[in-house]
Amino acid sequence: QVQLVESGGGLVQAGGSLRLSCGASGDTGCISAMGWYRQAPGKERELVAGIGGGGGTYYENSVKGRFTISRDNAKNTVYLQMNSLKPEDTAVYFCNAEVNYTSGIKNYWGQGTQVTVSS
Q1: Could you tell me which of 29, 33, 48, 100 has the fewest CB atoms within 10 Å of its CB?
Q2: Which residues pair with 4 in a beta bridge?
Q3: What tens digit of pLDDT does each residue of 100-117 get?
């Protein structure tokens, strides 16, 4: 089992910045990829940014150049630095961990943190 706890959400004006953090505990040695998803009201959950065990990253097109995902393996923590925030970035942001067990891959989710960007 892996437990994920997010922090860092809040209310910010357009153009501002926030940094989300996600701390992992439990079977952290089995974690491969980690990522940040978001879900806005009435919309499906979407992958915003991901980072693999080797450090490779992925960004959804609308956040490229504004968001940066990073990972501190020593602290079992993944971060999402969000700059130049826009009202359309408003959503609940969820941390995800992909965990490789001998029995297969499992995905774990945090509880979510609200990000609200005012215009």
Answers
A1: 29
A2: 24
A3: 999 999 999 999 999 999
